[in-house]
Amino acid sequence: QNNNFNTASVRVFSLNCWGIRYLSKHCPQRYAMIGDLLSKEEHDIVLLQEVWSEKDFLNLKKKLACSHPHCHYFKSGVIGSGLAIFCKHRIHDTFLYRYSLNGYPYMAHHGDWFGGKAVGMAVIKIGSMTANVYVTHLHAEYCREKDSYLPHRVVQAWELQQFIRHTSAGADVVIVGGDLNMHPQDLGNRLLRAYTGLRDSYLETANFDGCEDGMTLIADNPFISKKELVPFEKGIRIDYILFKGSSKTDMHCDSMSTTKGSIPDHPFPYSDHEALTAELRMEPHTPTEPGHDKKSMDQDSGTLMFLCGASMMRYTATRTGIMGLALLFLELAIAAVPWLALGAEQPFPRTSFYLLAALCCAILLTTFLLYIFYTMELKSLQGAEDQMRLAVGSLQEKLRGFPLPQPYSTHRKPPEGQEPSAFDPEE
Amino acid sequence: QNNNFNTASVRVFSLNCWGIRYLSKHCPQRYAMIGDLLSKEEHDIVLLQEVWSEKDFLNLKKKLACSHPHCHYFKSGVIGSGLAIFCKHRIHDTFLYRYSLNGYPYMAHHGDWFGGKAVGMAVIKIGSMTANVYVTHLHAEYCREKDSYLPHRVVQAWELQQFIRHTSAGADVVIVGGDLNMHPQDLGNRLLRAYTGLRDSYLETANFDGCEDGMTLIADNPFISKKELVPFEKGIRIDYILFKGSSKTDMHCDSMSTTKGSIPDHPFPYSDHEALTAELRMEPHTPTEPGHDKKSMDQDSGTLMFLCGASMMRYTATRTGIMGLALLFLELAIAAVPWLALGAEQPFPRTSFYLLAALCCAILLTTFLLYIFYTMELKSLQGAEDQMRLAVGSLQEKLRGFPLPQPYSTHRKPPEGQEPSAFDPEE
């Protein structure tokens, strides 16, 4: 696969498999199709999402034993993270980061909480280069107009960029694939790209073959109901293959393609999402200037408003809990009166009494669990906000030109007759 | 603080503050003492654990505004992680990794689950050097003989080493402080040191002043009940300051000290744990050979037996749940008989009927929650085991001498008349 001396190229595949056993349509047939495709195409790196059943993963593993001898399934949460990676190159190390926020357990029909959404990392060697490969799946967006999971997804995107940034310092190249459940211009997506310097295969390549505007959830896919996509009639782009090089290695996207809703000779497509394939080329180079970890500053206005929501929910839970407690005390008081006035008749029908008591206890238990849960949510949101503030503070310090290492300032002289500008638009 | 050209030294402080408001003895007075100590001593880096209340953190922050202008409180779980860092140098970035296993919510009197134990990271610059500073607190050991939390602590130690290893590639030096709740020779501790190459200040310094054997939980501390320490009459060493340099920087521990149970002019000590102070010296150097990331292979036999325990617990929960369900059906059947045979008398006393129904529902709910919880526990254990297998596999490959980069082999010639040995004892 080496095109010339020292240059290597990798083909990366990413697909949200929609693999809910017994619920997703044609699940076993689609897995068979996916297995056939992968063993035929022999991509270097295969990043799969929503492989909810470990059995399906093990079947794939068996089928791909020759084409992709190395693989890893990331376990997390109640059901699993659904993340899997297959690789032609040996996987040297893996690491999983579970997002601190991921939906609500009582929204069982959405199921995200039970999945334990996470980002999985695998360290592989391609020739002499170390590649950190990430696969992730963020919280689904069920309704764009009234998206109650927006704070969760933004915090997930924040944690994703942090995880990638902090774990990739030793890597020559970084490859990220997965279903981000975010449109290209969504806040979380901008946060991710701005802070990590990751580039979008679709935007970087001159050689694209696939759906209009790179869409990965399209109206032409028979598994997609047209209603879900409103107001984006043709479809949306929410799956990505992102990449970046390092000070030691340049990375380019030579070509990129997506499936287009239907597959020749097959009655249905691989999944409800389209599959992505990117051909990435890596070239070692001598460092000339520090990497492109440009950070943008206008990104942190997002979480403050979310904190309100979570603390209001917790407040409601507390209030309901207190009402339940008051009711229980009232009932006990009513029961205590005839017990104290010995011999008096019990004024309360016995059945209603027990039912009411059971109701009170149920309210108390539920509100207690909710209180705990919302407290955890609030803590995660506050934690993300603190970290954002810190990042902005550190950046402002840099911009103000305090005695911190400033990679760009040494290369450039200030224009004559002018004070050195503290604000550098390129940073 | 720079001793000579390019050499820097940092004083690091670590203390488990035992800061449970209203429950820990003399909590406000002890915080005042800790604040006084810190503002007087002006350590470069202060790592605190068990600062359970954010208010106490904010009070400390106010008090240390001059001596330690930069600080961060790590939020996590229901109560918080209890982790805080105060620093003379600007904190550029922080990141929190929550351990996937951390006790049981129903063991409320142990409280670990509610704390959301984690490892916090802060990136700071000391002169021109980047230091990654970690603060953590692992699950408590309540009974060494029958330690039901052992698997949790081992998985936490595994995740800690992974987190440190993967996030510290870009750092010149690494500093870790905290209450590991593990003795020096415990499996988790060996895992941590073997995989990261971290060195123990206490073992590395020639200049130690403190309790015998570096103990940090000692019988002489008035907050410690002698019973807790049995069979270690004098005390145990469970708090650590660990460090390592990098290919660019050497790191040494010049001196180390601990408090000794009582403080002159004060009626009681700072906490039930002893405080640690280490003076670390950093020297930039030109890389001569790759770092000392020696890995030992005999460490992964630990989790397999833990998996049994967790799956047995889940099995018990399932069985109890099924019994609850059966009981509920039985009751409904008994109730249905007179309802079907119209006019027949209800044979069941109404009150007992409702009580029994409530009991069944409670059993079902509880076992359902437990089932979910144990499934998550099992997944985390399996995940850690998979990662350990992978690490061992990658290592075995290396030892076998497959075409992987072998840092040592190029420097050395095989002895004459002998085949190049595939087994390199130094790797």
Low-confidence stretches of chain A: 289-304, 403-427
What's the order of the H and E elements of chain A? EHEHEEEHEEHEHEHEEHEEEEHH
CATH class division of the largest domain in chain A:
Alpha Beta
Q: Biggest sheet of chain A, in brief?
A: 7 strands, mixed
Number of DSSP helices of chain A?
9
| Order of neighbouring strands in the sheet with most strands of chain A | 3-4-2-1-15-14-10
Number of DSSP E strands of chain A: 15
Largest interface, by Cβ-Cβ below 8 angstroms: which chains and how many residues each? A-B, 51 and 51 residues
CATH superfamily of the largest domain in chain A: Endonuclease/exonuclease/phosphatase
Known CATH architecture of the largest domain in chain A: 4-Layer Sandwich
- Given helix and strand content, the structural type of chain A is alpha+beta
Portion of residues in beta strands of chain A equals 15-25%
Shape of chain A: elongated
Distance N to C terminus of chain A = 37 Å
Reported by name, the CATH topology of the largest domain in chain A is: Deoxyribonuclease I, Chain A
> What's the multimeric state?
homodimer
Tally the structural domains of chain A. Answer: 2
Rg of chain A, Å, rounded: 27 Å
Domain Endonuclease/exonuclease/phosphatase (chains A, B): 14-273
Keywords (chains A, B): Hydrolase, Lipid metabolism, Magnesium, Membrane, Metal-binding, Sphingolipid metabolism, Transmembrane, Transmembrane helix
Family (chains A, B): Belongs to the neutral sphingomyelinase family.
EC number (chains A, B): 3.1.4.12
